[in-house]
Amino acid sequence: MKASVIVFPGSNCDRDAAVALEAVSGIAPALVWHGDSEIPPSDLIVLPGGFSYGDYLRSGAMAAHSPVMREVVSRARAGTPVLGICNGFQILTEAGLLPGVMMRNATLKFICRDVHLRVERNDTAFTRHFTEGEVVRFAIANKDGSYYAKKATLDRLEGEGRVAFRYCDAAGKISDAANPNGSRRNIAGIYNESRTVLGLMPHPERLADPALSGTDGAKMFASLLETLH
Amino acid sequence: MKARITITLKPGVLDPQGKAIAGALHALGFDSVGDVRQGKYIEIEVAESDPKRARAEIERMCEQLLANTIIENYAYELEAA
């Protein structure tokens, strides 16, 4: 599996994502600078977490118009899987590859802790190593993590089975108490129509090694490896 | 010309920052304060002397970058620089 990780000024999880990918595939991903207009041939493109352009204007708004994003959008439309984590999710919504928008957390606080997520389906390139309905533990670290979309958009996402992960408690129950940031319908991650683009606020790469106190995130990278070789 | 652009959250979109500001104003004793909404203000100088063309430019800027029209409205005024 040849992966490319896009590096924006202010990205800070690019190396973490690269390490997690190399750990499962044995192949070091290409790190591609945001100002480049070319991306090497890739089975997977990752938009990492961080604070691209200092979150100026809106989180992800500037990065969405970086030169490299024209190529990311074009590859995504041609079917190349794209994974956007945290700031990467924000960039995917600002670039129009995923619907909705990330808003300031309802608490107004930067939230940095582990959360439980329910895996909504396990038949995608990103989730085949999970079981459907499995409760996993990923880390969140963001201030603009509250997913918002119009009711019609939310209904369409649910109707089309495009919700990837929801915030839940340790038993898998979806509730307001288990929602860390006010995300609509506890949504933590969504797919595009073909389920080849995934954006999620929690960080799978931060719990992808026993030394990091958890390995649930590694299953996502193992899923991608099995799907994409 | 100079454009003065105001970007505001659409009605119905939750604004936790506005709510926090309202809470702080109440704490200061401003009992008259009701709903508070926070937005953005941007000034842009445009090298364009024709108001019609300047308006078209500003609107494209707002649609493509300055506002996220899923959650935000924009308004602007133009003045000769």
Features:
heterodimer, A: 229 residues, alpha/beta, Rossmann fold, two-stranded antiparallel sheet, 22% helix, globular, B: 81 residues, alpha+beta, Mth169, Chain: A, 2 helices, 3 strands
The largest pleated sheet of chain B is described as: 3 strands, antiparallel
Query: Helix fraction of chain A?
Result: 10-25%
| Radius of gyration of chain B over all CA atoms, rounded | 16 Å
What's the CATH H-level homologous superfamily of chain B? Phosphoribosylformylglycinamidine synthase subunit PurS
- Determine the structural class of chain B based on helices, strands and strand pairing: alpha+beta
CATH architecture of chain A: 3-Layer(aba) Sandwich
Number of beta-strand segments of chain B: 3
Description:
The complex is a heterodimer of chains A (229) and B (81). By secondary structure, chain A is of the alpha/beta class. Chain A has a single domain, classed as Class I glutamine amidotransferase (GATase) domain (Rossmann fold, 3-Layer(aba) Sandwich). In chain A, helix 1 packs across helix 5. The longest helix of chain A has 12 residues. Chain B has a single domain, classed as Mth169, Chain: A (2-Layer Sandwich), CATH 3.30.1280.10. A three-stranded antiparallel beta sheet of chain B has the order 2-1-3, covered by helices on one side. Chain B is elongated, with a radius of gyration of 16 Å. In chain B, 12% of the residues are buried. The chains are: A alpha/beta (229), B alpha+beta (81). At the A-B interface, loops of A face helix 1 and helix 2 of B.
